[in-house]
Amino acid sequence: MNKTRLILKGTAKLEGSEDLHLIFLTDADQTRQLTMTCDKHINHELGLRLTRQSVVGRCLPEVLVQMLRYAGRENFEILFYGVNEGQYDCMLFDMDSLDTVNLRASDGVLLSVAADIPLYIDTALFRRQSTPLSKDGATSIAMPANIASEEMLRMALENAVSREDYELASQLRDELNRRRHAQSNERQ
Question: Could you say which of 75, 89, 146, 186 has the lowest number of CB atoms within 10 Å?
Answer without folding.
Answer: 186
